[in-house]
Amino acid sequence: MLELRGAGTNEKGDIKITITPERAQQIFIEYPVVKRAYDENVPDPLSPVDFWTRYLSSKLFDRNQASSRSAAAQHSIKDDPIFDKYLQKEDDGDEPLHQRAPPSTLLIDLNATHEDHGETGNSKDFTMKAGGLRSTLPLIRKFNEHSTNVLDAGLQPSKRQRTDDADELYYSQLDMEDLRGPKNDTGIELGLQANSQILDSGNSENGTENGQRSEPVDTRALAGTLRSWHNNLSKFTPGKKLVEDAFTSLSQNVAERVNVKSRKNNLPEDLLEAMGNLQTATAEFLRQFWSALYDDKDPTNERAKKMASYLATTYGKIAPMMTAARNQGHDPQTVRDAFTPTLDAVNKALAIHKARTLA
Fold first, then answer.
1. Do the beta carbons of residue 100 and residue 35 sit within 8 Å?
2. CA–CA separation, 306 vs 310, rounded Å?
3. Which of 131, 28, 146, 135 is nearest to 71 (CA)?
4. Composition bias, kind Polar residues: at what positions (predicted)?
5. Residue 178 within a domain
6. What global pTM score does this model have?
């Protein structure tokens, strides 16, 4: 725990303690009440030097020390109107003032039956109850809180045990991202090559279009054209070549449709089902990969790396299907051709992931 020790004495015999900015930050982290007192009293009415001088000689400083001797010496320290109002109640009750959240909340703990079976069953076990000596309780709990802070400092924020109240703790478990409303997406910026030329060409085209639209229209000539138009569609005779080309195109389209419907599906049902499942799973991995690749909430791209590892196994899953088709007397190339679009998408995703990893 953080202990402030003297580094010598001055001419008057007072103990000299140096408070560096780094040491002050450590004190603020270890004792949030000191941080609150500093923010509320510096620079008015106390300067930083006066603040630390009065703090080191106050009851609040002795209360924060990890020693039972400092607690006993509080009775001989003079009152301080500024720091005494930040003194908290002595944590020597049967229950600690700062209750820790349960290891597993009641929302997910299936073994938590004491809430609805309180009147029956065995009584609680108090054989390991701390505080046989009441004066040691504050010191023990102070060491426990410090140990928790040390362990939490080495964990990621998502793995730290929440110390909020029960409502916020339960709400964090019920608050799912899929249940939230749509958010304004800024979109993904495309890295276009020679984008300045594209913009310039677009502006020139827009200018040309605007120029064409700005030309005046002769309404009288347009009205005269409409009056001189006659309904001669009944006398219209299309060219022979145009009719033959249209008929040929329609005939080929019908023949192709009939050929597809009459073609027998020679692959077994179990193989087709396995191919469909692999196609569905790969498409979902691709969707997850692209959504995670540009996710600002995941700077390490862990989810994208995980999806890329799944996509890399696609070839290994297609090979057994081709072998099964060959063993059953079918052309394995048929299976490979069916996955060609999917494999092209997988190759594209893996190539981009590799380029971003090497960059």
1. no
2. 7
3. 135
4. 198-213
5. no
6. 0.35
Domain end point (choices 86, 103, 122): 86
332-353 tens-digit pLDDT: 888 898 899 999 999 999 999 9
Is residue 75 situated within a structural domain? yes
CA distance 307 to 7: 57
The two structure tokens encoding residue 330 = 């079918």
For residue 109, tell me if it sits in a domain.
Answer: no
Distance, in Å, from the CA atom of 112 to the CA atom of 115, rounded to the nearest integer, reads: 7
d(CA 79, CA 304): 60
> Is pLDDT at 259 greater than 80 in this prediction?
no
Q: Is residue 329 part of a domain?
A: yes
Give the DSSP letter string of 33-96: HHHHHHHHHTTTT--HHHHHHHHHTSHHHHHHSS-HHHHHGGGGSPP-TTTGGGPPPPS-SSS-
Q: 86, 108, 143: which is the final residue of a domain?
A: 86
Residue with tokens 């809180």: 145
Instruction: Give me the number of domains the chain comprises.
Output: 2
Q: Which bin fits 194, alpha (ψ -120 to 50), beta or left (φ > 0)?
A: left
- Range of 51's domain? 21-86
158-194: pLDDT as tens digits = 555 555 556 676 677 677 777 776 666 666 666 666 6
